[in-house]
User: Fold this.
Amino acid sequence: MSAQASARERRERALRVALPIIVFALVIAMWAAAVGFWHIQPYVLPAPGVVLRTLVTDWPVLGQSLLVTLTTTIEGFVLAGLGGFGLAVLFNWSRYVEYSFYPYAVILQVTPVIAIAPLLLVYLAQPTAVLVCAWIVAFFPVLANTTLGLRSVDRNLVDLFALYGASPARVMWDLKLPAALPYVLGGLRIAGGLALVGAVAAEIAAGSGGAGSGLAFRIMEAQYRLNIPRMFAALLLLSVAGLVIFYLLALVNYLALRRWHESALDGER
Amino acid sequence: MAPSAASRGTPLVALRGVGKTFPNGTLALKGLDLEVRQGEFLSLLGPSGCGKSTALRIIAGLSAPTEGKVEWGATDTQRTKTGRVGFVFQEPTLMPWTTVFNNVRLPLKLAGVAADTARERVSAALERVGLHNFSRVYPRELSGGMRMRVSIARALVTEPALLLMDEPFAALDEITRFKLNDDLLTMWHALGTTVVFVTHSVFESVYLSSRIAVMAAQPGRVFTELPIDAPYPRNADFRTSADYAALCRRTSDALARAMAAGGEP
Assistant:
C-alpha cells in the first residue's frame, strides 16, 4: 500500500520535471521545422539555433547587460524587502502611522510603473531611476504580506505572552515575527519577480535616450536595428534570470519553513 | 501530598460581584461571587455560553471585569509577576515554529530566567508530563494528547500557585482524556497547586474536583456550589463506583436546574 503510494509519488515527481521539458523540446522542434520549411528570414523569425549562436557571439555585450539588469534587480529587491518589511513592522507598531501612510503605499502600487518611470527619469539619474522603479513595484507585496502575517498571530498565544508580562518588543520578536515569517517569505517570492519587471520597465522607459546598458535597453536597441536574433537572445536571458530568481526564493522559503509550516511540509504525515 | 487542611480553607483569590459586559453590549457575567481556596481543585461547570471561560480569563487578568472586583489573598498580591498563574487553553496553543523544549521554556524566558536554570526546570516539567524524550521535536510531530501535555508542562514550568484550565481536554478522545485526567490529579497532588478547571462535562468535573461551582447562563453567574467529598487518590475504581454515579447524578440534577434557571442555552 505505502510502497505503491510512494511509487506513484515518484512517478508523479518525474512527470512534473519531464513534461515541461518535453513541451519545450516539441515547441523548439516545431519552431525550427517551420523556419526551415517556409524559409523564413532571420530578420523576421530566427531559427532557435541562430538565437543560440547569437547568444554566444554577442555574449560580451549581452553578458555585460545581464549583469547591469541583475544588479539593479537585486538592489531593488533587497531595498524593497527591507522597505516593505520595515514599513509593515512600523505600521503594526502604531495604528496612526498605518492610517497616515498606507493609502500612499497603495497609490504607488496601483499606478502603473511604466507611467511613473518617465517622470522619475526627469528628476533622477538613470541608474537611480531604474532602481527606484524596481523598488516601487517590488516593495508592496512584501508590505501587504508582512502586514497580514503580523496580524495573523494566534490570539491565545498573544494572551499567553500577556499573562507572562512580555514587553511589546518581546511580543514582536518572539511571537509576531516568527508567526509572520511564512507570509514575509511569500511576499519576497513575489517581490523577486516584480523587481525584475520594474527594472525592465524603467529601462524601456529610458529607451534609446538612456545611458544605461541593461538587457531591456539591448532589446530596444536591437529592435531599432532589426537585429531580431539578438532580441530573442536578450529575451531568453531575461526569462532565465526570472526563473533563477523565482526558484532561489522558493528554495529559501522551503529551507526556512520545512520543519513546521504546512506549506513546506512533505507529503508524508 | 495535598495541602494541609489549614491552608485549604483560605481563599487564594475571590471574585466579588463580578460583572462583564462586552463592548458589543453582550452581558456575559453578572453578580458572580466565587472564592477559590488554597489547594483545592475547583471546577466551573455549566452550559456553553454561561461565561465560565470569561470568568477564568478575569481571574487570569486577561480580561477586566466591568463590575465588581477580583481580590487576591495577602500572599499573592504579586500575582501579575510572572509565574503566579498558569493557563491552559482549549487548544494546545503551542508555537509551531519551535521545539517542544522552547515552547515549555517560554514562560521562563519571558521572566528572564538564566538558561541553565531554565534547562533544568524545563526538563523537570517535561519529565512530569512524560515527554522528556520529545524535547527536540516540533509540535506538529506530536499527537493531540501529547500537544496538550506540552501545554500543561508549559503552564507548570513556573510552578504557579494557581493553574487555570479552560476545557483543556474537550477536543481529545475519551481514552486520552481519562489518562490525562489521572495524570493531572497526580501532578496536582505532587505540586500542591490550586486548580480552577472549566468544563461542560459532568463526569469529568466530578472525577477531578474537590468542589464544583455550577454556573447558569444569561447572565452568567454561579448557580450553586457542590463539594465532592470522595477521597483522593481517585482512579479507575472510583470511576466505576456507585459513589461516583451518585455524585454524577446529583451534579447532573444541579446542572439541569441551573439550565432551567438560565436563559436559552
User: Anything to note?
Assistant: Residues 1-40 of chain A form one domain. Residues 168-206 of chain A form the longest helix (39 residues).
